[in-house]
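Recall the central idea of this unit: under ordinary conditions, the amino acid sequence of a chain determines the structure it adopts. In this exercise we apply that idea directly, starting from the sequence alone.
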Amino acid sequence: MFPYVVAGVALLLFFYNPLQEYFSAGPRPYAYSPRPAINESLLAVDAPNEGAPSCPADSYSIHILSKAPLVIYIENFLSTAERELLLDVSGPLFEPSTITNNGAETHRDATIRDSEVALLPRSGGTGDTVRCVERRALAFQGWRDDLWLERLRTQRYGPAQHYAHHFDWGSGAALGWGRVSSFMVWVDAAQDLEGGGTDFPYLRRRGLAKEWCRWVECAATSSGGSTEEEAKAKAGARNGEGEEGEDMGLVFKPAPGNAVFWENFRPDGTGRGWEETWHAGLPVRKGFKVGLNIWSWGRLDYQMA
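Accordingly, the structure predicted from this sequence is:
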């Protein structure tokens, strides 16, 4: 009997740490998996014989808003000439926006997403400009391996149009692939625009300097029509209060030429998205705005501890 007891204790000691890690470490990292089947017609992929466009030197500047998740504000991401060209090419291409629940089939639901969208051509007279914007977005992310841009789309919003709160990252990232990052770029906005800000109600921030008020709502009223105190109360009711000294949520103003970049997934190898990237295009109350969506699809980052 005694040898069996000794053997049992030895087995328990041998497997104790692995078992403890298995049951207490939380979500486990995904395995390194091959690229799933994708529809490459939806990606901005150059033809094999297609030469590189002649692109102007980048002249933007960046400001880090958050490190976890990574959120970066970009000044002058688009030049005036680029914005004018994108507006010209988008005009005849706009059609009602749609949504998808499974990543494949689409349908229109104006209660969730009410706007017009234009899929930008990558060839012809405007193709080089579109491809230069694509290359700028890829370079911004360090020319990462296993990363592709989705085809660029402009979005136009008029009075009462909006995009309800949502995540860009969706689901299905268990195998380590998904929409890893997003750019929200503003192409145009009416001078008398009211409303239409991009709202991140769960984004935690610690005492923004007054300089940020050029790009985020700091006035007594927000784009959503609530006072600042009401907006904070709503955020607290949804999320609970932040840590001491933290404010919850902010609204970016539509600033033509500028952009916001954020990463959608946690770099822990679990495929979990950042809850703080829950965002919305708030209703336009007066005027119009035109935005540009740049989404990156590829392998999720996995930083080893």
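DSSP finds four helices and 18 strands in the chain.
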